[in-house]
From TrEMBL:
The lineage of its organism: Eukaryota, Metazoa, Ecdysozoa, Arthropoda, Hexapoda. GO terms for biological process: proteolysis. Transmembrane segments: none annotated. The keyword Chloroplast does not apply. Gene3D superfamilies: Collagenase (Catalytic Domain). Keywords: Hydrolase, Metal-binding, Metalloprotease, Protease, Zinc. This is Metalloendopeptidase. Its EC number is 3.4.24.-. One of its GO terms (molecular function) is zinc ion binding. Pfam families: Astacin. It comes from Diaphorina citri. Binds 1 zinc ion per subunit.
Length: 108
């Protein structure tokens, strides 16, 4: 979070000082490293979930940054609507069961 705040205009603030109703809720009780991409209305005033299974998901700073980027709305590069201007997808090189990671989103 400090790196993003230092290098971008993004600011993370503690929940107790929030001014918006939407917030991220970071946990480690579930399996896997994941975050929803961007804003999704949450039930019962819950935060947007970000999970870091311990210790696997916190072993590398890049994994943490990856999930934080998702929760603020950043897609995988290969899924961006403009990806064909920047990368070539070699479909036959993608493992079975993971091809959905390379489907293009309709908007960025
Ligand atoms: Zn991801």
């Amino acid at each position: 979070m400090k790196r993003f705040e230092t290098e971008t205009c993004i600011k993370f603030v503690p929940l107790k000082t929030r001014v918006y109703n939407t917030y991220i809720e970071i946990g480690s009780t579930k399996k896997g490293c994941y975050a929803m991409i961007g804003y999704h209305p949450q039930k019962n005033g819950q935060g947007l979930p970000v999970n870091f299974q311990l210790p696997e998901c916190t072993a590398h700073q890049g994994t943490i940054e990856h999930e934080l980027l998702h929760v603020i709305g950043i897609l995988h590069e290969q899924a961006r609507s403009d990806r064909d201007e920047h990368v070539t997808i070699v479909w036959e090189n993608i493992e079975k069961g993971k091809i959905h990671h390379s489907y293009k989103e309709s908007k960025n």
